[in-house]
Write a structure and sequence with these properties.
Length: 269
């Protein structure tokens, strides 16, 4: 019975890789010849990025008062439990009034790897956990192919409440929620970040580049409360992959980069 289960898992993994476009194996590991240098080095050099959305808005004097208050509330949290409680009682974001549940985090809060998505959907709103709907299940399947499950990483969203009708968050909502995300990262102190989707990547890293241009390399994320920049890997959001199957090849390349980098971290090379 156990052998049959293992065989089924192996067949499902092969089927998923075929969906991504990994339909040919010439060696033990796939080679992306358009990014030979990045794929042959487990931990590529970090690339400087422009300031985050918060820093940019502050420089322009455009931050809403609720965002300033969010800074104060988030900074006062001394643990992840306190941060969750602070978010639960925070009244500065109108999204909290329309959402069913606060969606804080899932996975291992002590893990060295942290994933950041964009905003909860309907299933996440009902359960109070991030990435449990169709895109989250797809993400779990993708990560399983490189040996990752939720015991090995922490996962959260930039926006902790579902926007009505799954609309895109406004700039003001992002500015209000971003201090809580930064505090979440600072308290969890992961070794590496993965940023899923353009909104998460641009909000944390800054700039206006599209996710297809940002993905594929480790970059520096400057997080308030951390003394050193944090390596961050922008990736395509799993919901985008479900809508755009042709992009799965890029995701496969990024997963291999993530896998090799984590292996290098473990070996100390």
């Amino acid at each position: 019975m156990e052998a049959a289960t293992e065989r089924q898992v192996a067949l499902e993994t092969l089927r998923l890789q075929l969906e991504w476009g990994a339909d040919e194996a010439l060696g033990e590991a796939p080679v992306d010849r358009t990014r030979r240098q990045a794929m042959t080095r487990p931990a590529p050099a970090l690339v400087e990025r422009s300031p985050s959305l918060v820093a940019t808005a502050a420089a322009k004097g455009a931050r809403p008062a609720a965002a300033v208050r969010a800074d104060e509330v988030a900074a006062a949290a001394r643990s992840l439990q306190e941060l969750r409680a602070a978010l639960g009682s925070f009244e500065g974001c109108s999204l909290a009034a329309t959402a069913t549940n606060l969606v804080f985090a899932d996975g291992n809060p002590g893990a060295e790897l942290m994933f950041v998505g964009e905003a909860p959907g309907a299933e996440e709103d009902l359960s109070g956990k991030p990435f449990v709907g169709s895109s989250g299940q797809f993400l779990d399947r993708m990560l399983a192919t490189i040996g990752l499950d939720r015991t090995k990483f922490l996962i959260t969203n930039l926006i902790p409440w579902r926007p009505p009708g799954n609309r895109n968050p406004t700039d003001a909502e992002v500015l209000i929620c971003l201090p809580f995300l930064f505090r979440h990262i600072a308290l969890a102190r992961p070794r590496r970040l993965v940023l899923l989707g353009a909104l998460a990547a641009r909000s944390v890293l800054g700039g206006n580049a599209g996710i297809r241009r940002m993905r594929g390399k480790w970059v520096e994320a400057r997080v308030p409360g951390l003394d050193e920049p944090l390596p961050a890997l922008p990736m395509l959001h799993p919901a985008y992959l479900l809508r755009t199957p042709g992009a799965k090849r890029d995701m496969w390349t990024d997963l291999i980069l993530l896998k090799r980098t984590l292996e290098a971290d473990l070996s100390g090379t």
